[in-house]
Amino acid sequence: MKVHLTVALSILCGTAVAQATRPEQGVSTRVALIDRIVAVVNKEVITQHELSERLDRVIQDLARRGTSLPDRQEIERQVLERLVIEKVQLQLARETGLRVDDLELDRTMARVAEGNKLSLTQFRQALERDGIAVDRFREELRNEILINRLRERDVTSKITVSDGEIENLMLERGERKGAGTEYSIAHILVRVPEQATPDQLNARRTRAEEAVKRLREGGDFAQVAAAYSDAPDALQGGAVGWRGQDRLPELFVEALQNLKPGEISNVLRSPAGYHVIKLIEVRGAGAPLMVEQSHVRHILVRTNELVSEDEAKRKLTNLRERIVHGADFAELARLNSDDGSASRGGDLGWVYPGDTVSEFERAFSELKPLEVSQPVKSSFGWHLIQLLERRTADASSERKRIEARRALLERKGDEAYQEWLRQLRDRAYVELRLEER
Hints:
Layout: E1 3-4, H1 5-13, E2 17-19, E3 30-32, E4 37-41, E5 44-47, H2 48-64, H3 72-95, H4 102-115, H5 120-129, H6 134-154, H7 163-175, E6 182-191, H8 198-216, H9 221-228, E7 239-244, H10 250-256, E8 268-270, E9 273-283, E10 290-301, H11 309-324, H12 329-336, E11 347-351, H13 358-365, E12 376-378, E13 381-394, H14 396-427, E14 430-432
Antiparallel strand pairs: 1-5, 2-3, 4-5, 4-14, 6-7, 6-9, 8-9, 10-11, 10-13, 12-13
Helix pairs in contact: 2-3, 3-6, 7-14, 8-9
């Protein structure tokens, strides 16, 4: 429930339900509190109802995973912090003009249903059986899309990987002991505020050491992560999954060299805070890589103070009509696209999976050769995309370079996102009222 502070205060002060007989009857007034504020985040609030609803779902999810439940107060604090982080991201997304319209949301719902091998009607019924309101699910899905789009725009899109970095990583891979080894790990992060005081640093390190102590006394990692970790995956048990050495911070790689499967690291320090990692499993390098490449071109219209979302979409819809009726895509791209590829007729060449942002890749992956998409929204603006052709090739000869670039992007992206989140949280006005009960 997203309630502005002034509205929430009116709920608390003016809308509480008073049930009473007339004073002359001598019966005392009874007041029932509808809701209460548990956090103020800039100009918005998080209510007890919102916190309780999310907390119940997290507990159900942990139970479904077979994770021993931590103390309810510990997990309540963790869930509240997640809601604060979500709130500041959503506020920034809205303030900077990011939107997810209902049509896009409908398409995403259909893809989620398809991914669960259900029709849309069956998926809605499954949500209702689990006690999840469909409208609530849609709004949370909208928020998730917004946050992903915000991350791509403000973090991922600004990360660059140079040829020199790729060459250095490939050289390092060849020289490093255990090159090609992959690790399945789980992770706890105790985040440290920017410009933290010595007392804050000591308190956060002590918290990380408490987590290590509980783990070494036999505590369940997923339970401890849910109670202690500030990482985005904390409430999923801190599981990171399989990562090659190149996709992990050097700090983690050095620690993993000394661990056996099942063992826990000591507390590790990075600019983001204090880390604890668990090595779950190790495996060797994989098989040769078969890659499907797509040859695509596009027309990009960026939105700004002069060009609204509706205008950009309408312009591309008109251009698509012209292309469908025989106009030359390349010529229209040269005249209309706001992208650097305009001089090449919008041609992006052969792209690999992961080379483009998710909305763009999803759109062209659904096209047939020579088909032109409907206008597609991404963090860069609105696109009109044409798939020219596809090919599947043995990319073994290019595998090292492809993987090095992807690993560098992922490593830099994870680190940049954590730092960006910390700065965003530190800049926000946050007042926690969980103890006022």
